[in-house]
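ESCALATION

Customer reports they have been waiting on this structure for their group meeting. Please prioritize. Original submission:
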Amino acid sequence: MVSKKSRSEVRVKKHLKIRNRFTGTANRPRLAVFRSNNHMYAQIIDDTVGNTLVSASTLDKEVKSGLDKTNNVEAAAVVGTTIAKKAIEKGITTVVFDRGGFIYQGKVQALADAAREAGLEF
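Update from on-call: job pushed to the front of the queue and completed.
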């Protein structure tokens, strides 16, 4: 009988394959996205030193106050614009997008599109 792997195991394996292809540098850091059942998280990371330069999520007070729900496409778009604004304030304009093993549609795509519209290049 064929056993099926869980979705989380498949996602982690995809994420490791993606991480082997690129890393974030000081010139072009990595925009990492994580999506849970209830929240969206985004970080801009410099992998050469292992520092998180900028972060935003639906748990932040300024983001959460303007939302009805924290697990829909609109919330992901707000997180995308917030992370882009914070990054531009710190002088970061270009990033490498790390979708975290998630499929590029729905919330992940909304976050990426909102970040691009707010000024980030990837």
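Sent to customer with the following note: The CA atoms of residues 28 and 48 lie 11 Å apart.
Escalation resolved.
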